[in-house]
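step: validate -> pass
step: tokenize input -> pass
step: predict -> running
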Amino acid sequence: MKKSIISIVKYVAFLFIGLFLLWLVFRKLDIHLVVDQILGANYYWILLSFCCAILSHLARAARWNILINHLGNKTKLSTTFYAVMIGYFANMALPRLGEITRCGVLAKKDKISFDSLFGTVVAERVFDMIVLFTMIFLVIVFQLKLVGGFVDKHIFSPLVSEFSTNITPIIIIGGLFVLAILLTIFFMKHFLPKTPELSLYSKIREFFTGFFTGIKTIYKLKKKWLFLFYTFVIWLMYFMMTYLVFFSMEATSHLTIIDGITILAIGSLGMVAPVPGGLGAYHFIVKAVLVELYLIPSAIAASWATLIHTSQGVLVIAVGALSYFLIFLQKKKNNNELS
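step: predict -> pass
step: emit ->
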């Protein structure tokens, strides 16, 4: 009961954060102009991005099959695809629910251990996390002048300006930093060894255990090169989903391939944020990047972020609902054949 209440409070809190970020994105904009931009977009490019999205989801299902087969289980690509899409559908409602849902669907459909399936999902997520952070690192390296100028203008310069005229913030921040280090050392020395069951400690330990287990699982795969190929296809299609939508609006049609990779990498941080479906977080991050790095007008930047996020959300809901219906029909057909 207590865990359920905590889960509900967390969900409401993160939903509120997402809505607050969404409000920040649109609060100074003319909503009518934003709507006109969205309705006036060229939806031919949106349809093409849908095709790329479906290919990425198929590649994810095929890659997941490799991990499942490695454990000695057999699944159909169609069934795995349905489970993946139902998982994405669940993520639209509650962050991280999708991983549990898709494992539950496949475990029930193909009689596979839920724990085994969840282990394969952890391995998947570990590898995708490595790819994402590698991409972010490369974006920073290859666009150092652009990103560096943004950071200098909006972070370093204001800080230097403030600190150069006022020594008090330096003393306060320095004192807090030293205090934080001392408290951390004291806690680790006196309390951490005696409280291995501590919630935060357990979560950190579970994270690193899952991380290294995932790496070892992928390393031991017999078809690791095929696994890497499907990973490449997944992220290539993710990029195409972003890049093609540039051409749906005249104001963003000039953006380059590198710009598309930048939006994908940084925008993904909004999608992995613990808010339902990346709501608000994705809009906030992508709008900031488009406005500050590429000088796209605020209304158009917000419109573009809304267009790509909403269109992909509609696709996930439609295909996810259809997948649930199709897997239900499969189950009913199998039951009829057995009876």
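step: describe -> The chain is about 85% helix and 0% strand.
step: cleanup -> pass
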